[in-house]
Structures are given as C-alpha cells and as structure tokens.
Request: fold
Amino acid sequence: MIRIFYKSRYDFLRFWRIAAALTVAFILLGLASFGFTGGVNYSIEFTGGTLMQLTFKQPPDVATLRSTVESAGISGAEITQYGEATDYTIRAQDAASVESQAAGAEGIAKRIGDALTTRYGADEVTVVRTEAVGPKVGAELRRGAILALILTSIISLVYLAIRFDWRFGTAAVLSLVHDVLLTMAFIKLFDIEVSLTVVAAVLTVLGYSANDTIIIFDRIRENLKKDRKASLYDLINRSINETLGRSIMTHATTLAATLALLFFAGEVLRPFSIVMAFGVVIAVFSSMYVASSLLLYIEARYPRAEEDRQHRVGAAEEMQALASGGSAGRKTAKARNAAPAR
Amino acid sequence: MANLRSRLLIILGCVLVSAWTLFPRTVIERVKRDGVFVYDTVQRVPLKKGLDLQGGMHLTLEVDESKQAVADKAEALDRALKVIRQRIDEFGVAEPVVQKIGTDRLIVELPGIDDPERAQSVVSEAAFLQFQVTDRTQAFERVVARLDQAAAAAGITAATSTSAGDTAKRVGVTSLFGGDSAAGDSASRDSAAAGADSAAPPTDGRGLFASRVAPGAIPGQYIVAAEDFPLLERALSTPSVQAVLPPGKQLKWGAEEVENGAQRFRELYMLDTKPIITGDYLVDARPNSDPVDGNVVTFTLNNEGGRRFRNETAKHLKENMAIVLDDKVMTAPTIQSAIGRNGQITLGGGTLQAAQDLALVLRAGALPVPLKITEVRNIGASLGEDSISKGVRALMLGVALVVLIMIGYYRFAGMLAVGALILYVLYTLAVLAGFNAVLTLPGLAGFVLSVGIAVDANVLIFERIREEIDGGKSVRLAIDEGFNHALSAIIDSAVTTILSGAVLYQYGSGPVRGFAVTLIAGVVASLFTALFVSKTFFMLWLQQTRGAKALSI
Reply:
C-alpha cells in the first residue's frame, strides 16, 4: 500500500503569517496592476468588436499583414500569432464599426477578408473563425458574468450556512472570496484574455475550492465531537493532516485532467485550462491555510457556548500568542503535537 | 445475495439503456449531396455537436427600433421568427435553429454553412416589396431650392464629404478654416462657405442639391455622381430635409451603382408615397434567366392583389413604376399595359444566385419588423474538426493519467474505481444524448475535467476505508463504514458543483451552457458510479473472495 503523507504531523497553522503575507502580496500586486494598466483583457464577446482567425499557407510577414488590414480601413487592430506560425488572429475593437455592421453596412470582417484575399490570394489564406459582437450584447454578457459570480458566492454562502454553523460558513465563504481575488490577480498579472469560458473556469474553481474546504471542515467538526480536550489549534492541524492524503490525491486527478487540457486541447481552450490549473493548485492552499486560519480566528473572536468552552480558551490564547511574536504559540503547538494525538 | 444480484441488474440495465441511447441510429436529415440539400437517411450517433465543433454560423438579431417604433415587439418577433425559419428552410441548411431569446432577440444557428455572407443576408433582409409610381409633376424641381436651404441649415455642406460622420457643428468649424482644401471644384467651395455661415445665401444660388443632382432618363428619375452619394444620402436622411418634401412624395435611391463608361452614378427617384401594391399580396416568386433582361425574378400575386394591380397599372399607363425592395429602387420600368397577377423584377447585373435568393426571401415574405444583427460568429468546418480531434486527444490523455494515478496508488481498489470510471464515461454521454444536449468545445473541456473530478468521490471513500482498516475494523466493515462516512462530503461536493453549474447555465450563452450541462451531467453520473457502482464492485469482490482478510487499497 502506497501512502503519501501517512500519519503526517505538520503544523500547518504555524505558517499562517507567511501564507497570509504571500497571498495578500499577490492580490495587492494584482490590484496594483489594475491601477496601472486598467482593467483585464476582455475578449471580443465582452467588449464588442470583430475577431478573425486566419490560417496562412506560409507564415506571413506581420508588417505586411498589418498594412493589409490597415489598407482595408481598419486602424488599431490587434494582430497576434495564435498557436502555429501560420495562424493569426486579428482583433478590431472599434465600437462604431460594429454598430455600422449591425446596421447592415459592409462588415469589418468582410472588408478585412476581401483585402486579405486581394493581397495574398484566395488559396494562401483562409478565414477559419469570425466573431463580431455588438457593444450592447457585450455589455449584457459582462453584466451576466459579474452577476453569476456574485450569485454563486451567495448560493455557496447559503449552502454552507445551512450545512455548517455560521462560523464555519463565514470562514469558508471568506476563503472563497480570497480564491476569486487570487484568481483575478492571476488573470490580470498573466494577462489572460477573459472570455465567457474563463468566467466558467473561475466559477468551477469556486465550486471546486468549496469542496475542498468542506472536506477539511467536515473532519474538523467530526474531531470536535470526538475530542473535547484538545485545543482548536491542534484539532484543526490534526484534521488537515488527516485529510492531507486525500486532498493531494483528489487534486492530483483533477490536475491531471486539467494539464491534459492545457497541453493537448489546443489554443482555444488554453486560457480556460490555465485558469483552471491555477485554481486547482490554489484550492489546496486556500482550504489548508486560508479557510482553516480564518476558522481559528473566528472561533477565537466569537467563542462557542458552554459545551466547547475549552476550545475557545485554547484558541484565543494561541491566537494571541501567535500574534505577539509567535514563538510562544509555536512552542505550545509543538509541545502539543509531540504528545500523542489521541 | 439477492441484494447484490439486483444491484448488478440495475447497473447492467443502465449500461444497456446507455448503449441503446448512444447507438448510431438512422435518422432522416437534410444533407448536402453535390451541393444541393436533400432529405436523406443517415447513420449517426445521437450526440449533437455545437457550432464550434462542426462549423457554422451563429447570428443574434434584435428588433431595430431606430427605423420604426414597434408596438408589440414580442408578437412581431414571433412573426419574424416564422418568416426567418421559412427562408432558412428553403435556403437549405442541415439542422438550423431559430429561437426567440427573451422578448426582443432572435438567435439563428446555421451549421455547415459555406457562404456566410449570403446566409446572413437571407436571414436579415427585410424583403419589404413595394410598387410605387414615379413622379411626373416636377416635384423635385419645385422643392430643390428649399431642400438646399434645409441642408445648409442642418450644416450639411460639401465639406462634410471629407469628414463624413462628424457632427454638424464640427463641419462648420472645419470649413471655416479650410473650405478650399475640402474639395476641388468651385461649387463645393461655395457650399462650404454656405455651411460656415448658414445665414448667408449661397453665392451663386446653387446649393447642395441643385449643383449635384441632374435629371435622369425617365420622369422622376435623377442621377448623382457616385462620389457625391454619401454626402447626399446623409442630407436626405436628415429629418429637417425630409420635412421639405411635398406631401405624398418621397425620394428613394436606386439599389446599385450604375456605370456609364468611366462615370459611376447613383440613381435617385421621386416617388408617390402611396404604393400601388406591396409584397403582402405575393404568393409565389421564381428566379429566371431572361435573354433580354438577364437574371430576373418572376412573381405571382393572389387574386385580390392581381385585381388591384391591374386596376392601378391601367390608371398609370405609359408611366413608370418603381419596384422598391427595402426602400431601394430595383428598377423602374414603363407600364406598357395593365398588369395582372404576374410580374417580373429585373435585377440589372445581378447573378442568378442573387435572383434565387431574392425569390426565396420574397416567397417567405417580408420581415414584420426591421431586424439588426448584433452578433455574428462564424466557425469554419476545419477548425471544428481540429477542435474535436484535439479535445478527444486531451480526453484520452486525461483518462489515461487518471487511470494511471488511481491504479498506481490504490492498486486493486483503483482498478475497481477505473471500472466505475468507464461506466461513468458511458453514462455521462448517454445522459447528454438523452437530454438532447449539444456538445460544445467548452463542453468537451468540462467533460475532460469531470473525469478528473469523478474519481474524487472514489478517493474520499478509499481514504476513509484505509482509515477504518487502520482503526482495526474488518475489511467488510471498513468498506461499509468508508462508504457511509464519505457520503456527506461527496454529496456536499456534488451540490456545490451543481449549483455553480446551474448559475453558469442561467447566465452563459451557447458554448458555455454546453460546459455547464456536461459538468452537471458528469456530477450526477459520478454520484451514481462512485456511490452505487463501485460499492457493488466491492460487494461482488467480497462475495467472490468470501470475506477476504486483506484488501489491496
């Protein structure tokens, strides 16, 4: 029987400061880059505009391609290589032209297409995909995506509140918010194009991360019932250790599928797969560090009634100890961990 | 072991039903044979591919209220939907989708289209046909001076042609500074000056219309040089200019540019506003090739329409009748004799295909409201095929990796999980086919992902069983406890995933909906395979080994 992290006794919570510093730094970095370079890189479906994907027989010269597009009267188009050296996309996000296309005028896509055929010949270049989205549709989709994010968070909150008590629920939801912020910072910092599929990935990450948190919290609750003597700090640590093996395994299988998508499913799905892969990795981190640390904090701040009094005292002491230098807390934690768990 | 037997029977039954659901079947479908669409029987797996996987065109249309106010949008949209459906059916598309979204939007999906532009115009053309008599009263000449004044007052001058699309105010300013550079000839300089100070009268009395519109060959017809067309079109679409036209008369442009040697013209017609007849009376329209007129569309009116048409044309003998399609004059032939039920529209230089398309849209009827296209997506068939092959490759690899991890780590129990996973794949596909779900590229991604997530439930159960065995329980008891204790966590994870999937379905569009559907179908199938199927496998193993001492897990 192979077992990873079997009977591990890591003191996860001890590193909560480092974890918090890292994740807050990453999120702040993301927010700061929002301030410097404006919003995220929205795809055509959100901004409105025209996107064309072209396949050439021979790799084209980008300057020639650009001048051809400009000769069609489209300025400021974004031309990027897409996957293979012969594949290119052209993005023109000119709202006015989209309107005129919607009004039945000669579309941008047609104009670019005609210019390309004249320049390169019909055999040399093929338009494999065209998307033209009016600004109104884009704005609606954007609104829908934001609404979907908020709605998913609220639904998770309600579900978790029913499923656990409010302390667990709040910790879990705050960690979900953390996940969303972290993923957005990632999307922003790595300049990933935000399409509807990427929003779908973020929502899936949300659901997935919630699963993971639920598994640990389930174990914490179970241990709370079983063991009324241990401090909450130890209890949470023990619960994380006990669920560590399965957390690693469930993530390994999901990550395997995600990586298969990332490397083999092609260019169209790449943004989705990258966000998904990032999400799967941070889901481990967030349920172990963020959700659990938050739970400890909330339990210390808003202690439970009679039956769990000793947890509260222990937790409050340890939070204080951790906050004031940490060495004392670490020592007690170590001492407790050294003692037999049961 | 009646319990075990009934469990096995249930699993087998599900396998049979799934296999039957997914079995390739014979359906009658429109297929393309030698470029023509015919109904034929084809064998295919009943899993529908989305446009992004099979190639095709997606259009979103909206009621265009900029042209006319629409009282009952929903009702008008229903009628528009019928018209579009009929047009598409005749146009020939394998499996089109025409759907109303909300109260003011239609989506049209045309799989396997190879001429997207043509398809787009067949769908969105209003096809409002009118027959209007051209003016013989010199109405244009009588109002041309006032037209010029109105245009000048609206700030539309020759300078506009170089900065078309700008606001009237800015045109005035530009022409103040550079009236000369705006255009070469003296006439334009004059009108530029007029634009700069609209209170001052044009210097030589020749305004925008007077200088640029010349009488044509027939009464009521005028010609305009092609380069002046954008400017005049803009002037004519200004309400204050429109208001100057005499009551009961209107100006309409010819449909296409006319070439005469090196010169290019657009025709402008002064018409009686009240049409002799409209396309409402039309019962049939056919494309035709005429040796004299080229490609034409011949049409037939119903009895009432024919009677009215005969009466009206008899009244207007030797006059010209403009055939107006979507506010553009197609031709304006002279009425030689009273015309009854049958008539003909000449297309000028149009191709036979253009005649076919026109006949098609006329037969299907006009759109009851003007529609505008707000979204076009067009995916080439080759890209779709490429996406499928890449997606399938990712799926294979994903499954292989998951199988490797499960068997490598959980050994025998892992094999049971893999067995359950195979059934999972089968069931999920069957659920998708059963619900007539459309498989899209994000859907394919969702499916690959769900394979990774599907075994999670098995992992939870196996880890729990290991713990129970560690705790000193017998294998049989450990398995039972393992399944029981993991249950709540599995249900939780299923519920959270289904909830986020449901939200996605609600707010997503086409392809993303496909993702949501596969995700939800996957989670439901995995609940069954992880909780029921793999438990049955364990029970079967326990029975075969008569309560084994050691479990390879």
User: Anything to note?
Assistant: Confidence is low (pLDDT under 50) at residues 101-106, 325-342 of chain A. The longest helix of chain A spans residues 232-264. The radius of gyration of chain A is 26 Å. Chain A is about 70% helix and 10% strand.
